[in-house]
Design a protein that fits this description.
The structure is a homodimer of 298-residue chains.
Chain A (H helix, E strand, L loop, with lengths): L1 H9 L4 H8 L7 E6 L6 H14 L4 E7 L11 H5 L9 E7 L6 H15 L4 E6 L4 H8 L3 E6 L6 H6 L8 E4 L7 H15 L11 E4 L8 H18 L1 H26 L7 H9 L5 H12 L1
Parallel strand pairs in A: 1-4, 1-5, 2-3, 2-4, 5-6, 6-7
Helix pairs in contact in A: 1-5, 3-9, 5-10
């Protein structure tokens, strides 16, 4: 499995054959996106969720998405280290993901790795993303269920709106619930959900707001229950198919665009770098430059 | 100017003509990226920097990049509201940016708007990005100078490394310096810069670490000095040309890929949506699907 995911990360062309082999099994796992600002306790919460899901006999895969530096490709091992609780459990597979060298970036590498885990029998794939930037929001939004973690005092409800996470959250978890301000944060989020209630059509999912103290293992079972409720709603409402098609579209597009980006740097005529020099000096406008680039590949 | 930037945001094709008109003037401003986690005081600091730059007679443009929700396209007006200090100053132009509907997203819309501001005579364009996700890091990295804001207790130095901001920062600003832990945060960052010192070649820029209390207007002049020092280094080292070529390449590429994304959804044969349904059901693998997509456009 580790070797397969390494292949997935590298974007090796042989992947097409592997992907074809996986077939319908590869879409069976529930993919849960877990996102939130740095420091809210994502890794600890993920760790506790793994334990709780294992208690119910589920097989679990974890993909810790590491937006590796655009400059050095450096990756931090923190998540891997903290997950050692499960090192000897064959029902748990944990992996830090890196987009390094992948043609389609994390948007393609993450679902591909999730497919490998599903094909290998995982019931749940937890995708932990660092940060709340747009790229991470997008990755989380490609999950079947998106869990947004907040912590009291880490930034108020307005910041959550700013980061665009309100619309994508199926379940809000206010972690570190023993800290001052936890109840206020819960109320803020509930208030914002209530504000959005009039826009929700009947039968739509109303986001849940839960409190946990992951470090003490408190409140985790309620999160698992909410995950299961959401899964049932996804299946009954037809939303599961929609989300999976959305995810597949994003993945196909990311792969196609990644392939094209690679081609842009290998053009025999005016490649991207040549055009960039002209634009940087103000001799050519970028719109005209992009058209020249496209003429050469189509 | 407002109408031009609206055109830029909408990705209107008429832009090519406007961009061509702007010519060499459009690349003269220094673009300063300002990034950091939600809540570190980016808007307040930007506001104070505008004041300080105005005191030295510079014309200043501000682009507040709002990663509008991928789902509703909603934008928050907070930044615009807080910038009312400058509403009557003709030497300051402030604008919230949205990627809504722009073909190349923020990666193309932001430099295009910066070019409009430069063409209109701005000496400095400050690009304030929300969050520290990969997309924001990328936008910041397209600046001539990147300023990373931190606040004591908002997350330690390790979180900064995790978010990939250490490699892109030219100037670190520890804001809210009157809070506990400010000196510890400064030491952590300086420690990490020292660790990286052996990898820096002679003549490379060593990131500065400064303390501010933007709400009190303290420490801002030192930031302006650091910006000016960095600008001189950029010009003397030849790095300015390199960064601008990098920015131009990213912009051209984003425009080209945006155009291709639009084409993917309009294919007469198997468009993206049709292929996504097959992939979602496990009947087709995404690699094969991406190749089918590409065959149709090239």
């Amino acid at each position: 499995m580790a070797r397969l995911i390494t292949l997935v990360e590298s974007g090796d062309r042989a992947l097409s054959e592997i992907a074809a082999e996986l077939g319908p099994d590869s879409v069976k796992a529930v993919v849960v996106g877990i996102t939130g600002s740095p420091g809210v306790g994502k890794s600890t919460t993920t760790n506790e969720l793994v334990k709780a899901l294992r208690r119910t006999g589920k097989r679990v895969g974890v993909l810790a998405v590491d937006p590796s530096s655009p400059f050095t490709g450096g990756a931090i091992l923190g998540d891997r280290v903290r997950m050692q609780d499960h090192a000897t459990d064959p029902g748990v597979y944990i992996r830090s993901m890196s987009s390094r060298g992948h043609l389609g970036g994390l948007a393609a590498a993450t679902p591909a790795a999730a497919r490998v885990l599903a094909g290998a029998g995982c019931d749940y794939v937890l995708v932990e993303t660092v940060g709340v930037g747009q790229a991470e929001v997008e990755i989380a939004s490609l999950a079947d269920t998106t869990l947004v973690l907040l912590a009291p005092g880490m930034g108020d409800a307005i910041q959550a709106v700013k980061a665009g996470i309100l619309e994508i959250a199926d379940i809000f978890v206010v972690n570190k619930s023993d800290r001052d301000g936890a109840d206020a944060t819960v109320r803020d989020i509930q208030g914002m959900i209530a504000l959005g209630a009039s826009e929700r059509e009947p039968g739509q999912w109303r986001p849940r707001v839960l409190k946990t103290s992951a470090a003490k293992g408190e409140g985790i079972d309620a999160v698992v229950e909410a995950l299961e409720d959401h899964r049932r709603w996804l299946e009954q409402s037809g939303e599961l198919d929609k989300r999976r098609q959305h995810r597949a579209a994003a993945e196909i597009e990311a792969l196609a665009l990644g392939e094209l980006r690679a081609r842009f740097t290998e053009l025999p005529g005016e490649d991207l770098q040549t055009l960039a020099v002209e634009v940087a000096e103000g001799r050519l406008d970028p719109y005209a430059a992009s058209m020249r680039l496209l003429e050469q590949i189509s």
